[in-house]
Amino acid sequence: MAKPNSEKGNYENLPICRPISAPIQLDSNMLFAYPLPASYKSAFLDSPLPLFIKSSSSEENLDEPFHPTGFVREMIDGWVLSEESPKASQTFHDQSHNVPEFTPMGLPFYNMPVTFSNSDIYTQAFEMAKDQLGCRMLQRKLEEMNPFSIQTIFEQIQPHLPELMIDPFGNYLIQKLLEVCEEPVFSATIASVAKSLPSISLNPHGTRAVQKLIDLLANYPNHILEVINALTADILTLIKDINGNHVIQRCVNSLKCPQNQFIFEIAGNHIVEIATDKHGCCVLQRCIHAATEGQREELVERIIEKAVELVQDAYGNYVVQYVIDLNSYSVNAKLAHIFMSSIQQLATQKFSSNVIEKCLQQNKEDVQQEMIAEIGKAENISKMIGDQYANYVVQRALTLARPSVLGKMLALIRPRLEELKNSHFGKKIYIKLLKNYPVLID
């Protein structure tokens, strides 16, 4: 690539760094018809001017040069000189040309992304980390596993770690850094972000970086307690957040007992609040899945205590169904006996009816027959058979009932057939009953 002549200031041989094209739906000839200042010289007619672009940031001191310290200060000059600049990129950080901008038809031109050279890795890492192409260059550099490069990049971004963890591009750099760094850098990273971990976890980009950090904690067990303490104060907020809940689930999976016990204690003490939340119910199911036998028993017991309240909730019912699917005879029997005391109320509700049907189906025969006997009582079956939700529970009970009990239940249903036949909703139930139990029309 041609370089500027420092003596004559001749930039004529430099190519233009970005093409300028017409906005969508505009003829490119229209651009030149837009009135411009008399002093303006078109870049299309005169010799091309170099385009110097600096990245923008909300940081006040972004354009201040990075001042490396220690070993980096002594070595950086030699390393920079040994690097080759990419052929398609030329950046001048201390110069700029004020080319007039024009906005034909009120449509703005968007700035092209900053271009970086390899030497910028050692002086502009923070700016590069927030740029898509610059971030990729840094990640490739980290993958070389060169201790000097890792340390140099880290020293530049360390003051900005919380900011980069929530950046759309910077979070990927932090993840890569955590993967390749040694214990001193990992330890310094924890110290720099510990106080900000809850807020970072609530961010859609930050949650990924925090999950990566938690995944790697197994390699640095001395830092587990520090991370746990940072998350504990805001754990309920995290559990119920669309992004934060993934961090807690990662803790459940990646940390072992007793390191993850703090999550089980919070979950047990706030079982209804968590189970009835859209994201909390997922965390609770994850806890049950990943728990030790002792942790699972304690958590399931708390769920059983609040089962009637939970099954009536749009999200809580899934937690109870998850417990039923564990197929523990003793647990399912406990739940069945709890539900039988209010079987009609629960069977006629949208969410709880699904749980009642599952509990009936996934219990042993002796418990099933107890539930069927309760459903088959005249005051229950006569109301449930015509209900839009409870009729499914009744139909399940009929398929599982012993012959003697089935006859009694059908006898109680027969007086309701005409009513079912003449109702818009009950007509389907009527047809299904006659198909499965022809004895009803005898």
UniProtKB/TrEMBL annotation:
Pumilio repeats: 120-155, 156-192, 265-301, 302-337, 338-373, 374-411
Residue ranges of domain PUM-HD in the record: 94-437
Biological processes annotated in GO: post-transcriptional regulation of gene expression
Molecular-function GO term, any one: mRNA binding
Domain of life: Eukaryota
Keywords in alphabetical order: Repeat
Gene3D superfamilies reported for this sequence: Leucine-rich Repeat Variant
InterPro entries, A to Z: ARM-like, ARM-type_fold, PUM-HD, Pumilio_RNA-bd, Pumilio_RNA-bd_rpt
Transmembrane segments: none
SUPFAM superfamilies: ARM repeat (SSF48371)
Any Gene Ontology CC annotation: cytoplasm
Protein name from the UniProt record: PUM-HD domain-containing protein
